[in-house]
Automatic annotation (TrEMBL):
Keywords: Carbohydrate metabolism, Galactose metabolism, Isomerase, NAD. It is an enzyme of class 5 (isomerase). Pathway: Carbohydrate metabolism; galactose metabolism. The lineage of its organism: Bacteria, Pseudomonadati, Pseudomonadota, Betaproteobacteria, Nitrosomonadales. This is UDP-glucose 4-epimerase. The gene is galE. It comes from Novimethylophilus kurashikiensis.
Length: 337
């Protein structure tokens, strides 16, 4: 089928495009390139041997979206487009709500106008706020601690209301845990602009010598080694989860919120050790104070994804680190942004 990927040239969108093209779907990438590069379109084609259509545009341009949905005879949408830096969302809340919430409303209006009613949305484990119990299942209460997280919660609420309003809609909110890793080719991956906010790209830049050392935020959490624990999931496993969700929606109208995680947590020190092994490089680090807003531990109960979608993550931590390292080396040598 023909599938529109908003934010399709971004980190998770590009890997999902590869999985979908390789499963026989036709992908249309729609992106304003605010956090990605046009060269990703070629890179996807080099991996798949097929050229996905690309439209440069903003999801708040409803006319362009509507025309795209019609012109490409779109059957379903996967909505990745949005801003995702937690700290930036605190200093630029209006920009975050405009991009994420207003952008989603624009997309939904375009879909309504053209009769496209199947949607997979990029949500986040951040909607669980401070964990009240672990592992986190989909019934865990939701809350937000920053505008980014609140934008995801608002959107999930809007999507639930939409499904309640009409039985035509088929919507899955996929709550990602911590996506890391890259395609095995080393052609696509996460290439953040400026200083990385997230652990894995920061470690990769330390390993490549771009940065001197990693600051480990907190050594006094009530965890085995005192550092924070997260559920890191390989981006290719995550991408396959989107294909499984689309397939599920074909036969199941309604609304579902589904965790995409592995169910296993690793500490910051375990991540450093694993990356040192994968890259054969030392990762110098120092302990600093806790980062404001961080939780000690966060990992998924992934059972619902397996029960509903028949999907579970199978790639290892070593796969995550070695693919990140392969991509990082390619970036250091050749990548144009
Ligand atoms: P990304 O920044 O690499 O990709 C998002 C893409 O959306 C970028 O290519 C950007 O240019 C595009 N975009 C942003 N605003 C747009 C707009 N108004 N119109 C058109 N395009 C626009 O991020 P990602 O890591 O691939 O994340 C994809 C989605 O998954 C986001 O919605 C993010 O909030 C969500 N998510 C990401 C993570 C993570 O850790 N990476 C975790 C949970 C949820
Ligand atoms: C992981 C661990 C840090 C950087 C964020 C967003 C969340 C979601 C995923 C989108 C933590 C520690 C990190 C560093 C460190 N994104 N760390 N030094 O915080 O779980 O989640 O990304 O939805 O909304 O909040 O991921 O990669 O930033 O941190 O010690 O330089 O690494 O304290 O324990 P996080 P992260």
């Amino acid at each position: 089928m023909n599938i529109l990927l908003t934010g399709g040239t971004g980190y998770i969108g590009s890997h999902t495009a590869v999985v979908l093209e390789q499963s026989g779907h036709q992908v249309v990438l729609f992106d304003n390139l605010s956090n990605s590069s046009r060269s990703v379109v070629n890179r996807i084609a080099r991996i798949t041997g097929k050229r996905s259509a690309f439209i440069q545009g903003d999801i708040r341009d409803q006319d362009l979206l509507r025309n795209t949905l019609i012109k490409h005879d779109i059957h379903a949408v996967i909505h990745f487009a949005g801003l995702k830096a937690v700290g930036e969302s605190v200093t630029q809340p209006v920009n975050y709500y405009a991009n994420n919430v207003q952008g989603t409303i624009s997309l939904l209006q375009a879909m309504q106008a053209t009769g496209v009613t199947t949607l997979v949305f990029s949500s986040s484990a951040t909607v669980y706020g401070q964990p009240q119990y672990l592992p986190l299942d989909e019934d865990h209460p939701t809350s937000a601690t920053n505008p980014y997280g609140r934008s995801k919660l608002y959107i999930e609420g809007i999507l639930q209301d939409l499904v309640d309003s009409s039985s035509d809609w088929r919507i899955a909110c996929l709550r990602y845990f911590n996506p890391v890793g890259a395609h095995e080719s080393g052609l696509i991956g996460e290439n953040p602009q400026g200083t990385p906010n997230n652990l894995m790209p920061f470690i990769a830049q330390v390993a490549s010598g771009q940065r001197n050392e990693l600051s480990v935020f907190g050594s006094d959490y009530l965890t085995a080694d005192g550092t924070g624990i997260r559920d890191y999931i390989h981006v290719m496993d995550l991408a396959e989860g989107h294909a499984a969700a689309l397939q599920y929606l074909e036969t199941h109208p309604g609304f579902q919120a589904i965790n995409l995680g592995t169910g296993v947590g690793y500490s910051v020190l375990e991540m450093i050790k694993s990356f040192e092994h994968a890259s054969s490089r030392p990762i110098p680090y120092k302990f600093t104070v806790r980062r404001q807003g961080d939780v000690a531990e966060c990992y998924a109960n992934p059972n619902k994804a397996f029960q509903l979608l028949g999907w579970k993550a199978h790639r290892t931590l070593d796969d995550m680190c070695s693919s990140t390292w392969k991509f990082q080396q390619a970036v250091s040598e050749t990548y144009e942004i």
